[in-house]
Fold:
Amino acid sequence: MKNDLKEITAKSSASIELGENSLAAPSQRNLISNWRGFIVLLPGLCTLVIWEVAAWQWPGVAKLVSQPTEIARGIVDVIVTGTIWQHLDATLREMAAGYIIGAITGVALGLLCGRIRMLGDIFNPYITLFNGIPKVALAPVFVIWFGIGLMSKIAIILTMVFFVVFINTFAGLRSVNEDYVAIVRIMGASGWQVVRDVFLPATLPYIIVGLRAGIPFSVIGAVVGEFIASTKGLGYYINYNQGTYDTNGIFVGVTILAVLVVVLDGLLSLLERRLLKWRPEVEAKSVGA
Amino acid sequence: MSPIIDLSNLTKTYRSKGKTVLALKDVTLPVEQGSFTTIVGPSGCGKSTLLKIIAGISLPYEGRLRFKGKEITTINTDVGFVTQDSNLFPWLTLIENVEMALKIRGVSKQQRAQTAHKFIDTMQLTGFETHYPFELSGGMQKRCSIIRTLIYDPDVILMDEPFGPLDAQTRMVLQDELLRIWDTNKKTILFVTHDLTEAIALSDKVVLFTGRPGTVKRIFDVPLPRPRNVFEIHNERGFTDLYHEIWGYFKTEIKV
Structure:
């Protein structure tokens, strides 16, 4: 009996997730889910409209913050003329290399320090110490060490991404339920099998949090590096437009960066949803409650 | 025949916050092959510690402990351990959880699936194979955690208050299912509980532990005939007398 009841509740929460006919207050829920996209967009649209009207009304405003239609025109322009590609290409290369190296070393060392207690005890204080240093402050040093090209940006991004991924991986490993480990050891698991069947899957949610947090860091790292010394890249592009007092150009660059972060984060959240489909959906939970 | 688990004068100490704590003291307990033995005792008496020692996950100990005639010096892979929480791996589906031990032991994918389906059938979990643990009720999770232990056919099954967190009805249903399974395969079961009724309903022998440091206070034989009806165990002739006899000793260990 009790199981049947549980099944029914499980099914009904599944249908809430799909936005189908759910048990409680269907009209209200449908209203929210149907208009959800619009409600979320509303504040953004209002801001754009006010911004546009204000810039159109007072030329001083446009000088300081440009205006949405102009920024849009600017974006179309740099795409059509192709001037943006070399900058986008440079920034993406820096980000890809720095992010991938930082993520891999962060996960690898996080796993090692999280699992080998002695290593963790020795290195964790240092990691905490270095994590306290604002990494952007190290950017000038990296430029001295690695020059104004690709390498110095990779170094900055790598450092920033490494710490956030390391710390999350480490925390994840330290929180693994020891009962899981005991259970698979009793089943006969070897050291490697414990890592493959328990530590990795149990830590995955934490690793993904670190990887998602690393995306904006990699953009910050690239832009800061390019601000300091570079000959191309979106940071260079923004900096160049600042030199010529072209506010619109700055906003074109900033908008492209924002879109970049949103797209990359979206890709990772797709990956997250695929890899973590075993977790109850937070959204379904809060709506169902 | 010598007992499958042979404990004599087993003592366990551990260090906590710089102090030495005596958890178990001179425990002497033979567990016969194929028997259903239940340990009852006040909370904190070291019942769970004893199971962990037998599983080889809480070493070292002093005294004598022979498992199938051998001393336990490392993880004991001849036992199955069912914990109080179901502890299913939340990232695996029901069938993947059930197959885990076979995967670890290198059984082929096809063979694994075949065996798993057989066990899933016996526990009436068919149709839920691809569900994740969060989508299952507490009772279903518990069933799954029992069959993922049975599937690799361990000699002894250690159960640490497995039905503790369940509601009364689900609990009786699972006790009944456990007895059915035990009747057919006659595995040795060492079962820890704090519920005296459960202990009598299930077992051949009830072992009463004292409070900390835990040791065997008395062992009671349960002469009730099998197969037993756990739902009506109170009406069984002899149940009440045995209950009162054990309770008479048990209550002196609990500070009411």
Summary: Chain B has two domains: 1-78+158-256, 86-153. The radius of gyration of chain B is 18 Å. The helical segments of chain B are 47-54, 94-104, 109-122, 138-150, 168-185, 196-202, 239-250. The longest helix of chain B spans residues 168-185.
